[in-house]
Amino acid sequence: xxxxxxxxxxxxxxxxxxxxxxxxxxxxxxxxxxxxxxxxxxxxxxxxxxxxxxxxxxxxxxxxxxxxxxxxxxxxxxxxxxxxxxxxxxxxxxxxxxxxxxxxxxxxxxxxxxxxxxxxxxxxxxxxxxxxxxxxxxxxxxxxxxxxxxxxxxxxxxxxxxxxxxxxxxxxxxxxxxx
Length: 179
Description:
- It contains five helices and no strands.
- By secondary structure, the chain is an all-alpha fold.
- The chain has a domain at about 65-179.
- It starts with about 60 loop residues before the first helix and ends with a helix.
């Protein structure tokens, strides 16, 4: 409360229109806008915020982000299956190689899962994590091919999935979705 020292005593014959409290009061300077409620529900709608920028800006489509998430899920699943098969088949012959593949598949899974969640929550870091997970998955497949593992023919086509994850995550439409 702010109190002021009175300058002069009010004349005894004049009645004050408001009680003298010494509190500084602020009155509205204009009228309040009246919101008209919906007559069916008596719901008063929230005011719409002003549009800043170009009026033709539309909400970004989640199609590319959804495609990136879907391809990343399938890619992560395929990578985990191949890594598990490789570890179970080679454990008796080369334990260090199997430990390296297990570590890489753990890093790939953690980055991919974190990237998927972040991308679907519209965080920018999600795109980066999906790319990191896909690059680590490509490293796993490179290790398979360099080691000369006896693999079914379909395994040679699986690296297309991490590449597709990288491409979809780096598209400008996915970047607009995350903003």
